[in-house]
Amino acid sequence: MSYDLMVFEPTVAPQERKKFMEWYAQQTKWAEDHSYQDQAVTTERLQAWFREMIEHFPPMNGPLASDNVDDPRVTDHCIGHHVIYSAYSWSVAEEAYPKARELAVKHSVGFFDVSATNGEILFPSNSSGTKNKKPWWQFW
């Protein structure tokens, strides 16, 4: 059993929870016709999240796989067209959650706490990655 988190492309995922969960179920059927270890199949933003995340939680499989199979930080990252599903060791859950979430915000991708009952689904405030808020001092 693992501690699972998922990041996703927010432009394709439904924002309403029930529809999101249906979309999530489709994504995790793993029916796409490609290797789930190749980061080239996913979006640029998810690739950026992955490149930075594996500095902290290296992949278990694929071309970038860690040689240290005993390291609890080694993680099974499954990469789809619009999602990256990561299965962490429970011993690193308290580190994995904030890092994955922090990098999701940084790279403007969605974040889903799969392992939690009624887990958090986080969408970037603006999925294009640009800011549309005025500075605090502009009130007009």
Structure, explained:
There is one protein chain. By secondary structure, the protein is α+β, with helices and mostly antiparallel strands. It is built from three helices and five strands, in the order βααββαββ. The protein has a five-stranded antiparallel β-sheet with strand order 2-3-1-4-5, with helices on one face. Strand 4 and strand 5 (121-122) form a beta hairpin. The protein starts with a strand and ends in an 18-residue tail after the last strand.
Provide the descriptors you would attach to this structure in a database record.
single chain, 140 residues, alpha+beta, 5-stranded antiparallel sheet, 25% helix, globular
Number of discrete helical segments: 3
Largest pleated sheet: 5 strands, antiparallel
Helix content: 25-40%
**Strand order of the biggest β-sheet:** 2-3-1-4-5
Which structural class fits the helix and strand makeup?
alpha+beta
Describe the structure concisely:
With about 140 residues, the chain is of the alpha+beta class.
How are the secondary structure elements laid out?
Elements lengths: L2 E6 L8 H11 L16 H10 L22 E4 L3 E6 L4 H14 L3 E3 L8 E2 L18
Antiparallel strand pairs: 1-3, 1-4, 2-3, 4-5
